[in-house]
Amino acid sequence: MVLYVQNSSLIRPRGSIIMWCDELSTSEALMDNIQAIELDMSQCGQYDNSIEKLTEIKDRFYNEEALYKHEWYNLQIKPPMYSHEDNTSKMLIEEKIKRKIRRLYTLRGLLLYRDRKYQEALEEFNKVLGEYNSNDVQLEFYTIFAYDMLGEYSKANFSIEKYIEKYRTDTKNIQSQSILAKLNDYYAIIRKNHDKRLRQEAEKYREVNSASSKLFMNMWPTHIEFAELSNVAYCKLRLPLLPLWTFIDECNDIQHSGYYGIAVQHTETKEIVFAHRGTVFDVNNASLIADYHLFILQIPDQFRVAQQFTNKLREKIDPKQILWHTGHSLGAAIAEFLVANDTLFEQKLLSFAVTFDSPGIMEILKAHYDRKMIKHDLLKPDEFRIISYLSAPNIINTMGTHIGLVLSLSPPLPLAVTYGPLAKRFYDYFTTSFQQFKGIIDIFVEQLHKQLHWHNLGTIIECFKAWPNENGLPTIIKPVIKWPKGPQELVGFIHLAYEHNLTSLDISWYAQNDMDKVLNAFEKCNYNVVHNPADLPMVLPLTFWNRKAQSFLKQIINDDFKKTNVTKQLSLDCELIKFIGIETMKIIINILYWKEETHRYNNMEMITLNESAIPNHNGKMYNINMLTIFKLFSLFDVDNCLVKIIDEF
């Protein structure tokens, strides 16, 4: 047998040879590339046939692992006895191979899951969790999701119960409280999905006229599409991954203001979306300069360029068409500013923004209009036609006051901090040289890692894609009543989260006996969200709706109005009825109702849906949800929709 050694420096002076597998290093670089492009989205581009490439690596790695177990270390010119150094090297090599194989199966499983090949993904996940005895929380969650997507309720339920018991007894894991919080949410969702499937199989829903059904069959872009289009703004090469969206135009002013925006259109519905790019570390630092302008409450040049880009395209389309805007971080601020201007000054133009981890622009709007001496009474923050998704509180999304409907996501837990070779050297040097500061350095690095994780668009997209549903919404979302603003409130929030061992920054399932105490503590740093039970429809406080919508809702959602002996006369001159039709309007009125809430929210009036009253067309439930209704009531006036109420008795 001939043994090739590609690196002669690996021949030991005593004659032994460590077979360092260059193939492993090459394959690891390939996996790094696939993960960065396909999953982390930290690099721009596409990776063709990524699953097939990983399959080839898997086949090679399996053979190499078998070779190692039987022959690897024996195939060397070695002294009569193994030295301690040889045994140590052997264990290090073996662990390195196993670590790479675990990563390979994990990466391949996540890609299969993304492609909705849930059964194949489960095989990869179970191999990592079982044969390789990994304690990967992310894979444990994805195993639950995959069983649910396959409709295997008993297996999903068994997995959740097993993991709940595991983390309830694992007191050494500092993340146990957060993991248990998510598992309890998932437990409720699994139960809800199972009940819904049984109900759909057993019941025959009331058929309705299909003339008005288009609105609830995904006529508008879904929110997961907005998130993915925000990602396209960072990397145009990702647009082909969204086959129903086609390129219209783009504005590339990166060399001057740093702005980049892209306009796309849905091939079937013809809806148009403007996606605005967020901060990138470009050569001329234009994005960072724009961020600085936002920090000092000035309007960056990027806002002006984006307005010009939007106006140029608006001149070419039907003025009655809704223009949608989206973006992440700085791009979210741009999208919100454009829609805020339309709301205040161009009220005949219909525009709406769905944004992700915006810095909050209410103070920026006020300062801008004061500086320009524009006389206009600013609306209240919740009057704007915007839905703003926020990750966990972080240094970006706590910069200012948010406008529109603000929703909190439940992002995945950050992975452990890892260092590259160079960073590891710096870390070892500083912690060795200044041992008294090691604890402070570790806390700083950990918090920086978490902050970047919470704000990352890939993390936000995973909230939508990890457990997809027919509405294109995240599985867990919570309306925001209060959100920390500024460094002081953010630090106070982080301190409380650390004190209560809430590494996911999610307090909804904290120990029930201390719930009120904990919530009151968090309110002191201006944090309060509506904790919707995961197995129930979303509830929105009445005060989150605009003033005209509030007045209309108070009329239609009262006990007298719901009586069967009451006739409601609707006006055909109503803007909303003109858009969706009178039959659809009747459906909306019929399914909305009040929800009683406890003192936790100061007796706020809450609105939710009666899902059992949602009709069915051609065997499929209407794709209607609270956020769709919110967008309708934001875009169209409802103040003249109800003409009169007649009591027939």
Automatic annotation (TrEMBL):
<dbReference type="InterPro" id="IPR019734">
    <property type="entry name" value="TPR_rpt"/>
</dbReference>
<dbReference type="InterPro" id="IPR011990">
    <property type="entry name" value="TPR-like_helical_dom_sf"/>
</dbReference>
<dbReference type="InterPro" id="IPR029058">
    <property type="entry name" value="AB_hydrolase_fold"/>
</dbReference>
<keyword id="KW-0802">TPR repeat</keyword>
<feature type="repeat" description="TPR">
    <location>
        <begin position="102"/>
        <end position="135"/>
    </location>
</feature>
<protein>
    <submittedName>
        <fullName>Uncharacterized protein</fullName>
    </submittedName>
</protein>
